[in-house]
Amino acid sequence: MDYKERYDIWLEKLDVDDPLRTELLAMDETEIEESFFKELGFGTAGLRGKLGPGSARMNVLTVGKATQGIADYICSKGQEAKDKGVVIAHDPRYFSKEFAQLAACIFAAAGIKVYTFPDLRPTPQLAYTVRKVGATAGVNITASHNPKEYNGYKVYWDDGCQVSSEVAAEMTEKINAVDMWTGVVTADFDESVASGLITILGPEYDRDYLDKVESLAIHDGDELDLSIPLVYTPLNGCGNTPFAQMLEDRGFTNWLIVPEQQLPDPAFTTVGYPNPEDPKAFALSEKYGKETGAELLLATDPDADRFAIEIRDADGGYVPLNGNQTGYLLVNYILEGRKEAGTLPTKGAIVKSIVTSSLSQIMAEAYGVTMFETLTGFKNICGKIPYLHEHGYTYLFGYEESIGYAACEDIRDKDGISAGMLVAEAAAYYRKQGKSLWDVLQGIYKKYGYFAENGTNLILEGVSGLERIGRMMVWFRDHIPTTVAGAKVVRVIDYLNGYEDLPPHNALRLFLDNGSWLAVRPSGTEPKIKFYFYSCQDSAEKAEAVNNAIRDEIVGLVETVE
Description:
The structure is a single chain. By secondary structure, this protein is of the alpha/beta class. It contains 20 helices and 21 strands. It has three domains: 38-202, 3-Layer(aba) Sandwich (Alpha-D-Glucose-1,6-Bisphosphate, Chain A, domain 3); 228-448, 3-Layer(aba) Sandwich (Alpha-D-Glucose-1,6-Bisphosphate, Chain A, domain 3); 450-559, Alpha-D-phosphohexomutase, C-terminal domain (TATA-Binding Protein). The radius of gyration is 24 Å and the shape is globular.
């Protein structure tokens, strides 16, 4: 079925006065194609797309179809799975609350117990609560750090992780079997609450999540300088309340939340693109940081699972750290602190993604800790925890370069609240010793090697963009270079058909004879092709120069593909 046929079906099926139909009639040919060129895929643990009418968009019909399919899948697992139920949360985006209530009503109509929150909550709290209440599954309506035009639908299973590829494939079969026009059944929300089929969770669940986060502390009390000046921004998302409560609970006395970005705002008016990985998201934080003399700027994305920081350098200016660099600080702080306290296990384990820097592996090995690699995404990183348990390892930390950190095995997703607590604690701990985070980072480089990290994304939206990304990956596989920026390619790993114990994944890694390596892969959740470049030299300047040369050559080659 092509996009025009799908469009015509929607026009025919929607009521004359339906707002979605009104939007359809106002579309030009390009908009019609972009909205109907595909069915919105159940990809990396769920759905993600632009809001609006159409089979390729997030709307009540596509969300309803997906939810009904997942409900049918849970029902196929028997009465126990239905009784254990589903936990539902949402972020502050347009239609998030409405989609969350719709999902609750569809699950309730299928006789599935539902737990939901009275208002928006962070993604990691949803992941934690799934295991806390013993639910079969969890759903969070969020598009994470995407622009305001997007929304999404993350799905979790009973282990508290985003659903595995195997479960997602089985759910997809059920979703594809649903007729979105006649096959979606909903219950009344208020009646379901009154009957007990839908339970609205109380504040004790917020407290329990924060207690778990705060239990991760490495140092406390007199070991910390709790007067360290901090500025935090939730970027108008879910992080405001729990992050502030965490800082208060831990005893920090000199912190400020960016006022313009404190309350939920689905338009993200003061930030635009609400991704703390982008230094532009720190503009207001820097303003308040300069006014208050803050040593550390902290930010979470709208669903508070991603986390980034800016620190003061030797000249006193604010420097944004990439996800790898923040990861270095966290790995160093956790391992150093555990060793000093005598709590470093004999079989400790850290987990990182295949596109995350090798420096953390060198650091882990220096402490006798084993580093495990997985495919990207925390369904894979946290999904490694059962394997670690089975083989006698103690999970210490998991992270990936895209500003995601999982410091607690009971919160099986990236968590900006716990990462923020540990970084703020680390800053206070080192300040007590007369050091800054900048000093610590330079010390890491001096001890283990000067690493440079570059991440470059090409954003290619729509039908043409998706097709071009596909052509770029095919071309790159057919034209693997033998040298890059004067360095010889000595090893190539293609994950397309799987590699060692890793399942198939559309990604490539190239290793060079000068110690550098690079990777390329399409994003699983965004219209991007992503590049990763890493180099290690005997100085920061050399590492940057080598890395930049490799980046410019590789990206230049791939960009020639039309």
